[in-house]
C-alpha cells in the first residue's frame, strides 16, 4: 500500500478522499507538500497501541503447553502439561479461542456507527474499557467458561479497533503518507503476534498465562493517559458533524496554521468536485479546488449516508466485491496458522512447537514492512494475485511435510505461507476494501465488511480443529480450494485500486453497471423483436 502522489496535466493535486486510500498522486516541485510533524507521528503511534492488542489476543492461546488434546484428555494429567484449566475438553478450548472472534464481530459492526455519531477519538478511548474488562476477566478467571467471557470482551475491543483506527489514520495523514503510515496498523498487529510468542518461553507456567492475559491492561492505560494530550479528533469527522472551525483547529494542530488551507484540499467531501475520468480534468481542476475548499468550511457539510444506501443499484456491486475481499482475507486459512500453528508443528513432529510459532510470527513482521514498496512497483491487484500463488504453493508444501513428517520443512512452508500473506493480502485487503466505497458510505461499508471478515475468521477458528481431526495430514487441502477461488475472484471482478482516486474507482463500477444494464436492455429488446416477428 504505497502512496505515490500523481498530478493532473495542469500540475494541480488530485483531491484524494478520506479516510483510507492506497496511494496519492505523484508530486513535483510545482505541488507544495506538507512535511510530517511529530504530532502526526505521535497520533499514529498512540492509535497503533490498540491493534497491538488485536495481535496479542489472536495468538495468546497458541501454545501447546497450554492446550494439547492428548495431554488434556489424559487421566491423570501429567505435570507441566495442559496448564490452562487442566482437563478441559477440545470443544471448550475451541469455543474459548473462537469466542474472541464473536466479540470481534460485535465490535466491528457496532463501532462504525458509534464513531460516526460520537467521533473517532471518544470511540477509541471507550474501546479501551473493553480492553481492560477483557483482560481483567481472563486473568482472574477460575474456570474456562469465565475465561471465555473475557475473550468476548477482548474481541469487542479488537473488532472496534479494526473498524475505527485504519480510517482514523487515513483521515489525519496527508495523501503522500497515507499508505506509509496506514501500514502501521498491520505492523502493530504483527508485532502483537511476535511479542506474545516471545512470552511463551518464560511464561509457560500454571500462572504465567494469567500475566499474558492481563498485559492489554497496560496498553489500555497507556492509551488513556496519552490520548487526551496527543490525539486529535478526525478533521474529516468534524466536517461531517458540521464543525468546520473545529476541523480547522485540528488541522492546525497537525500541520501548523500556515498549512491549513493546503490540508483542507485533501479532505474532499463532495464527490461532484472530483475530476471525472476523461472529462477535461486539466481545465476544471483549478476551479474545483476553489469550490471544494469553500465547501469544506460551509456549515452544511454533507452527511454520511446509511446502510440502506449501500444496497442501491449504484453501490451494491461495490459492497459485494468488498465483502468478497474481506472473506478472501480470512478463508484462505491464515488464522488457522495463528490460532493452531503449535498443533500443526506438533503434528509435524517438532519437539518444541514454541520455536516454530516464534519463527512464523517473526517472518510475519518483515514482509509487512516492505509491502508498500512492492505495491508501488506491482500494483495492489497484481501483488495480491502473486500472494495467492505463493500461499497455494505453501499450502501444498505444508501438506507434503505433514504427510512425510519433515518438521524443518514444515516450519519453512508455514513461514512462507505467512510471508506471502503478510506481503500481499494481509495489509492490502484493508485498503482495497475502503477504496471500493465512496466517502459518505465508507464507514458503514467498511463496518459491514469487517463484520463479515470476523464471521469468516470465526468459521475457520471453529471448523479447523475438527477439520484437522477428520483430515489429519491433509487439513490444508480445503484451503487450497479457497485460495484458488479467491485468486479467480480477484482476477475476474476486483479492480486494481492502485494509482486511482476514489472517484475513478467509482467511475469504473458505474461503467460496468451501465454496460451490464445496456446489455440487458438489448437482450430484452432482441427478445421482443423476435416475438414480434413470430407474431
Automatic annotation (TrEMBL):
<dbReference type="InterPro" id="IPR045263">
    <property type="entry name" value="GLUT"/>
</dbReference>
<keyword id="KW-0813">Transport</keyword>
<dbReference type="GO" id="GO:0015149">
    <property type="term" value="F:hexose transmembrane transporter activity"/>
</dbReference>
<dbReference type="InterPro" id="IPR003663">
    <property type="entry name" value="Sugar/inositol_transpt"/>
</dbReference>
<feature type="transmembrane region" description="Helical">
    <location>
        <begin position="383"/>
        <end position="403"/>
    </location>
</feature>
<dbReference type="Pfam" id="PF00083">
    <property type="entry name" value="Sugar_tr"/>
</dbReference>
<dbReference type="GO" id="GO:0016020">
    <property type="term" value="C:membrane"/>
</dbReference>
<dbReference type="InterPro" id="IPR005828">
    <property type="entry name" value="MFS_sugar_transport-like"/>
</dbReference>
<feature type="transmembrane region" description="Helical">
    <location>
        <begin position="409"/>
        <end position="432"/>
    </location>
</feature>
<keyword id="KW-0812">Transmembrane</keyword>
<feature type="transmembrane region" description="Helical">
    <location>
        <begin position="473"/>
        <end position="494"/>
    </location>
</feature>
<dbReference type="InterPro" id="IPR005829">
    <property type="entry name" value="Sugar_transporter_CS"/>
</dbReference>
<protein>
    <recommendedName>
        <fullName>Hexose transporter 1</fullName>
    </recommendedName>
</protein>
<feature type="transmembrane region" description="Helical">
    <location>
        <begin position="93"/>
        <end position="112"/>
    </location>
</feature>
<feature type="domain" description="Major facilitator superfamily (MFS) profile">
    <location>
        <begin position="43"/>
        <end position="498"/>
    </location>
</feature>
<comment type="similarity">
    <text>Belongs to the major facilitator superfamily. Sugar transporter (TC 2.A.1.1) family.</text>
</comment>
<feature type="transmembrane region" description="Helical">
    <location>
        <begin position="124"/>
        <end position="141"/>
    </location>
</feature>
<feature type="transmembrane region" description="Helical">
    <location>
        <begin position="355"/>
        <end position="376"/>
    </location>
</feature>
<dbReference type="InterPro" id="IPR020846">
    <property type="entry name" value="MFS_dom"/>
</dbReference>
<keyword id="KW-1133">Transmembrane helix</keyword>
<feature type="transmembrane region" description="Helical">
    <location>
        <begin position="209"/>
        <end position="232"/>
    </location>
</feature>
<feature type="transmembrane region" description="Helical">
    <location>
        <begin position="444"/>
        <end position="467"/>
    </location>
</feature>
<feature type="transmembrane region" description="Helical">
    <location>
        <begin position="147"/>
        <end position="169"/>
    </location>
</feature>
<dbReference type="InterPro" id="IPR036259">
    <property type="entry name" value="MFS_trans_sf"/>
</dbReference>
<keyword id="KW-0472">Membrane</keyword>
<comment type="subunit">
    <text>Homodimer.</text>
</comment>
<feature type="transmembrane region" description="Helical">
    <location>
        <begin position="319"/>
        <end position="340"/>
    </location>
</feature>
<feature type="transmembrane region" description="Helical">
    <location>
        <begin position="181"/>
        <end position="203"/>
    </location>
</feature>
Amino acid at each position: 500500500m504505497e502512496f505515490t502522489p500523481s498530478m493532473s496535466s495542469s500540475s494541480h493535486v488530485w483531491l484524494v478522499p478520506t479516510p483510507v486510500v492506497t496511494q496519492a498522486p505523484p508530486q513535483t516541485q510545482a505541488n507544495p507538500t506538507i512535511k510530517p510533524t511529530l504530532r502526526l507521528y505521535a497520533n499514529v503511534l498512540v492509535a497503533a497501541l490498540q491493534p497491538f492488542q488485536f495481535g496479542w489476543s489472536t495468538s495468546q492461546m497458541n501454545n501447546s503447553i497450554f492446550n494439547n488434546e492428548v495431554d488434556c484428555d489424559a487421566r491423570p494429567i501429567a505435570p507441566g502439561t495442559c496448564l490452562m484449566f487442566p482437563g478441559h475438553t477440545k470443544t471448550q478450548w475451541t469455543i474459548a479461542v473462537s469466542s474472541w472472534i464473536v466479540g470481534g464481530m460485535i465490535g466491528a459492526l457496532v463501532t462504525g456507527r458509534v464513531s460516526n455519531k460520537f467521533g473517532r477519538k471518544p470511540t477509541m478511548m471507550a474501546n479501551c474499557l473493553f480492553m481492560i474488562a477483557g483482560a481483567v476477566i481472563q486473568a482472574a478467571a477460575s474456570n474456562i467458561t469465565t475465561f471465555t467471557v473475557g475473550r468476548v470482551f477482548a474481541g469487542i475491543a479488537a473488532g472496534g479497533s479494526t473498524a475505527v483506527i485504519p480510517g482514523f489514520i487515513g483521515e489525519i495523514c496527508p495523501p503522500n503518507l497515507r499508505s506509509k503510515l496506514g501500514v502501521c496498523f498491520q505492523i502493530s498487529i504483527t508485532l502483537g503476534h511476535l511479542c506474545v510468542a516471545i512470552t511463551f518461553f518464560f511464561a509457560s507456567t500454571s500462572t504465567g498465562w494469567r500475566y499474558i492475559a492481563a498485559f492489554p491492561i497496560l496498553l489500555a492505560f497507556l492509551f488513556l493517559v496519552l490520548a487526551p494530550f496527543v490525539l486529535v479528533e478526525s478533521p474529516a469527522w468534524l466536517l461531517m458533524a458540521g464543525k468546520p472551525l473545529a476541523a480547522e483547529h485540528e488541522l492546525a494542530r497537525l500541520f501548523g496554521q500556515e498549512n491549513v488551507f493546503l490540508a483542507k484540499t485533501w479532505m474532499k467531501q463532495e464527490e461532484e468536485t472530483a475530476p471525472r475520468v476523461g472529462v477535461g480534468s486539466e481545465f476544471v481542476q483549478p476551479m474545483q479546488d476553489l469550490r471544494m475548499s469553500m465547501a469544506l468550511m460551509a456549515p452544511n457539510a454533507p452527511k454520511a449516508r446509511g446502510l440502506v444506501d449501500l444496497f442501491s443499484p449504484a453501490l451494491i456491486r461495490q459492497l459485494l466485491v468488498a465483502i468478497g475481499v474481506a472473506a478472501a482475507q480470512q478463508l484462505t486459512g491464515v488464522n488457522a496458522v495463528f490460532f493452531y500453528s503449535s498443533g500443526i508443528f506438533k503434528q509435524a513432529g517438532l519437539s518444541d512447537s514454541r520455536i516454530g510459532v516464534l519463527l512464523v510470527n517473526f517472518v510475519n513482521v518483515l514482509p509487512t514492512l516492505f509491502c508498500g514498496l512492492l505495491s508501488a512497483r506491482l500494483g495492489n491487484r497484481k501483488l495480491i494475485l502473486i500472494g495467492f500463488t505463493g500461499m497455494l504453493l505453501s499450502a501444498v508444501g505444508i501438506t507434503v511435510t505433514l504427510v512425510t513428517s519433515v518438521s524443518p520443512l514444515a516450519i519453512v512452508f508455514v513461514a512462507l505461507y505467512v510471508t506471502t500473506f503478510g506481503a500481499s493480502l494481509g495489509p492490502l485487503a484493508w485498503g482495497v476494501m475502503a477504496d471500493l466505497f465512496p466517502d459518505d458510505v465508507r464507514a458503514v461499508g467498511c463496518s459491514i465488511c469487517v463484520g463479515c471478515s470476523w464471521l469468516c475468521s470465526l468459521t475457520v477458528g471453529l471448523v479447523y480443529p475438527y477439520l484437522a481431526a477428520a483430515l489429519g495430514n491433509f487439513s490444508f487441502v480445503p484451503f487450497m480450494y479457497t485460495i484458488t477461488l479467491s485468486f479467480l475472484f480477484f482476477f475476474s471482478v476486483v479492480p486494481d485500486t492502485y494509482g486511482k482516486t476514489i472517484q475513478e474507482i467509482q467511475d469504473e463500477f458505474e461503467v460496468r453497471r451501465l454496460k451490464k444494464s445496456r446489455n440487458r436492455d438489448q437482450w430484452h429488446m432482441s427478445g421482443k423483436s423476435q416475438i414480434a416477428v413470430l407474431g
